[in-house]
Amino acid sequence: MNKAIKAALLSALLFPGAGHLLLKKYVAAVILAGASVASLYFLVATAIEKALRITEKIQRGEVPLDVAAIAELITNQTTGPEAQLLNIATAVLFIAWLIGIIDSYRVGCGQE
Predict the structure, then answer these.
(1) Half-sphere exposure of residue 50: CA atoms within 13 angstroms, side-chain side
(2) CA-CA distance, 38 to 57, in Å (whole number)?
(3) Using CA atoms in the order 39, 78, 72, 49, what is the torsion angle rounded to 10 degrees?
(4) Residue 2 DSSP code
(5) Gap between the Cα atoms of 108 and 24, Å rounded
(6) Which residue has the higher pLDDT, 104 or 62?
(7) Mean of all residue pLDDT scores within the chain
(8) Is the sign of the CA dihedral 51, 93, 12, 28 positive or negative?
(9) I need a labelling partner for 22 at 20 to 30 A (CA). Which of 6, 29, 38, 73 fits?
(10) In angstroms, rounded to a whole number, what is the distance separating the alpha carbons of residues 8 and 2?
(11) Domain boundaries, the chain
(12) Are 29 and 40 in contact (CB under 8 A)?
C-alpha cells in the first residue's frame, strides 16, 4: 500500500489531519484537527446541555417519566441562532474531514 492511500485512509478512518501527520505536514494536520476538535466539542457540549435540561425537567416533575414524552423532547428541533451554530459546526466537521482525505491523498501522491 502506497503512502498516499495510507494517508487518505488515516484521515478517513481515524481523524482529519492524521494522514497529514504521516506525511509530515504538521501545519495542515494541526489546522484540520483543530477545526474538527472545535466542531466536535461544540456539538457534544450542546448535546450534553440538552440532555441535562431534559433531566432537570424530569426531576422537577415537569415531564413524566415516559419514553414517548422524553423522545418528544429529544426530537424537538432547535431553533434560532443555536440551530445555525449547530449547522455550521456540523458543516465545518464534514468539510474538514473531506479536505483531510482529499488533501492527504494529493500530498501523498506528490511525495511519491
Answers:
(1) 18
(2) 29
(3) 50
(4) -
(5) 10
(6) 104
(7) 90
(8) negative
(9) 38
(10) 10
(11) 3-111
(12) no
What are 5's three cell numbers?
492511500
Contacts of 112 (CB under 8 A, 6+ apart): 2, 3, 4
**Look-up: residue for cell 428541533?**
77
Tally of helices (H runs) and strands (E runs) in the chain: 5, 0
Q: Would the pLDDT of 27 be above 80? A: yes
DSSP letters spanning 52-106: HHHHHHHHHTSS-S-HHHHHHHHHSPP-THHHHHHHHHHHHHHHHHHHHHHHHHH
Contact 2, 9 (CB under 8 A): no
Q: What is the pLDDT of residue 37?
A: 96
The verdict on pTM exceeding 0.90 is: no
Average pLDDT over residues 28-33: 95
Inter-residue contact 18 to 10 (CB < 8 Å): yes
pLDDT tens across 46-89, in order? 999 988 988 898 899 888 888 888 888 888 777 778 889 999 99
Read off the C-alpha cell for 10: 488515516
